[in-house]
Structures are given as C-alpha cells and as structure tokens.
C-alpha cells in the first residue's frame, strides 16, 4: 500500500489529501484550491472512491472536480451533505487501499468528523482531530466544542493500540514515530484551559 499526500508543497488554503493506492485506490480528503485531478492522474491514473474525514472547505473544495474527472462516489459521516453519496457511521468499515478501516466518529472540531483506523495496517487517518507534537483541532468554528473534542481524543486513545505506526493528519507532517504518544500529548494539551 502506498500513501501519497497529493497536496504536498501546495501553497493555498488546503488540507492534506492522501492518495492511497492498492486494491481500492482512495483519496482521503481532496484538499482545496489546487489541481487535485492532475495530481491523482500523475500518481495513479485512476481512482475508485473519495473518503472524507469531515466537510470543512479546505478538505472538500476539490471534491466536485475529482468526482467529475474520475466518476467516483464519496463516503462521509454526514449523509445529508450535498457532497456525500454514502453515509458511514461510527463502527462501520470502509476499504482503503488494501485494508478495511474502522470509522471512528470523533466530533469536537466539526460534528461530522471521523478518524479512520486500520489495525491490520497499523495506520490512522486522523483528519483535524490531532496533529504532530500534541496539536489538536480548533474548536472556535461552527460545530466546534472543546469538551467534545477532548472526549473524541479519549475515544481515539481507547481505539488505537501500541502497534499504531503511522498517523496521517489533516495538516502538517505525517507522524511515523510513536503516533500514540502524539495523541496523548494532544489530549493533555486540549485539557489545558
């Protein structure tokens, strides 16, 4: 399984956008305000689906262009959102690359936020819940709630184990050294008022 951040080096208002190839080539978040279609095309030439961690504009701005170019459908937590074709709920699984990923509903940054965890791949897509070095998602936007975010980080800590080896985050660098520790740091930082 290969994971590429097709938004790497982009200087615009965008999230990371992770292209995961394997048995089912999936784009986890599409980013915003750059040519995601050309970047996917250059990397794999094809796409099977889009999976969203949440629907903030910086994560979904490129969805319409990607859907049109590759004729794919979009999976996300909020089945009522115009961009989401298939609703996924807490505890559901979605195939990404070569592995099934468990959907973990983790609100606090945004109500429809999910993390995607595959114990078999020891991999987590954390969206904007937690970041490297103890960073955590902002809660001052609509649908943000600090107490709920803390509960979501606790839920994530309960879900992942020590075997977690890689955490792909919505902004900033991928964490590939003791990601659980970075989640614990985020938990501590979020609890400080």
UniProtKB/TrEMBL annotation:
SMART domains in UniProt: Lactamase_B (SM00849)
Cofactor(s) essential for the protein: Zn(2+)
Gene3D superfamilies to which the protein is assigned, alphabetical: Ribonuclease Z/Hydroxyacylglutathione hydrolase-like (3.60.15.10)
Membrane-spanning parts: none
One Pfam family it belongs to: Lactamase_B
GO MF term (any one): metal ion binding
Sorted UniProt keywords: Hydrolase, Metal-binding, Zinc
Domain Metallo-beta-lactamase: residue ranges: 14-171
Name of the featured protein: Beta-lactamase domain protein
Species this protein is from: Natronomonas pharaonis (strain ATCC 35678 / DSM 2160 / CIP 103997 / JCM 8858 / NBRC 14720 / NCIMB 2260 / Gabara)
Lineage: Archaea, Methanobacteriati, Methanobacteriota, Stenosarchaea group, Halobacteria
């Amino acid at each position: 399984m290969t994971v590429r951040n097709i938004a790497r080096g982009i200087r615009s208002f965008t999230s990371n956008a992770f292209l995961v190839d394997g048995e089912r080539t999936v784009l986890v978040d599409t980013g915003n305000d750059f040519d995601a279609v050309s970047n996917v095309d250059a990397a794999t030439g094809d796409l099977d689906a889009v999976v969203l961690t949440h629907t903030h504009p910086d994560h979904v701005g490129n969805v319409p262009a990607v859907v049109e170019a590759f004729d794919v459908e979009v999976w996300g937590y909020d089945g009522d959102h115009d961009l989401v074709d298939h609703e996924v709920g807490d505890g559901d699984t979605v195939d990404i690359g070569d592995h099934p990923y468990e959907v973990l509903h983790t609100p606090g940054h945004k109500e429809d936020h999910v993390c995607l965890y595959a114990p078999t791949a020891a991999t987590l897509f954390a969206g904007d819940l937690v970041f490297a070095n103890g960073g955590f998602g902002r809660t001052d936007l609509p649908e943000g709630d600090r107490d709920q975010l803390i509960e979501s980080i606790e839920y994530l800590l309960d879900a992942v184990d020590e075997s977690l080896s890689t955490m792909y985050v919505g902004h900033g660098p991928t964490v590939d050294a003791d990601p659980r520790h970075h989640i614990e740091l985020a938990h501590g930082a979020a609890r400080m008022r």
